[in-house]
Amino acid sequence: MSEEENKAPAPEGAEESPDVLIVETDTEAAEGSLKGAVKKLRDELKACEKERQEYLAGWQRAKADFINARNEEERARKEFASYATESVMRGLLPVLDNFERALKDTAARDAASEAWRSGIELIHEQMKELLKRYGVSAFAPSEGERFDPARHETVGTVPARTEEEDGLVREVVEKGYIMKSKVIRPARVRIAVFQKEK
Asked: How many angstroms separate the CA atoms of 131 and 136, rounded?
């Protein structure tokens, strides 16, 4: 039979319409299949959300690690620069001490020409300004001050007259220096030591 023969005649008065294929479906089977597809999609969505959360958490950890590493590097760089500056400043201190000793020698200073003296004094002042610019300042304990091992270094002793004088600074041999509240060279002192008679 041909397709034309298979066609049912159209009712009277109705126009002929194109062929429509009518398929009967089982609605329960269709609903079950739809629910299964929705459940599968929900499961896939949950898996994707979980994976996204893991990627986000990993990215956030990596970003925090990078920031921490950058901050640590910056801190280390500043610490190194501070250490290098402190080392250079500490190296200049004996030179400054020698300038001060030379300026205290009045006989040699008076024998030198005025130009030489003013040149030495100018260099001495420039060195003091340089140290000051980097936060270095001198300190010297006063006579009778209690010896402090964090700020003083003993280079000798003198006999104390009384027990109360024991451990007091009697003479400052060299000034100490502080750089931004850190002692970079302790003051060198002689302290009084009391010895009981036997």
From this structure: 5
